[in-house]
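Good morning C.,

I know you're traveling, so I'll keep this short. The sequence:
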Amino acid sequence: MPDYVPIACVTHERLEFAVLKRRRLRLYCMDDLGELAGLPLDVYTRDGAEWLRLRDQDGREHVVRLDRIRSFEEI
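The tokens, ready to paste straight into the viewer:
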């Protein structure tokens, strides 16, 4: 996977806020992830990159590198 490209601080803060307020999100991602929807559980740093952990409506957890998210919205 290519080197991590940090995201804008305001975008990072919006994701953290969604975790804190338990706001469901719809993510539009690059690569083969496509579109994901669910409850964001955590935003964290690991291996020199930032990540979002999200649980979908079926209870499956997904981990998405933040620079792979094209856009997102609350649902």
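Safe travels,
E.
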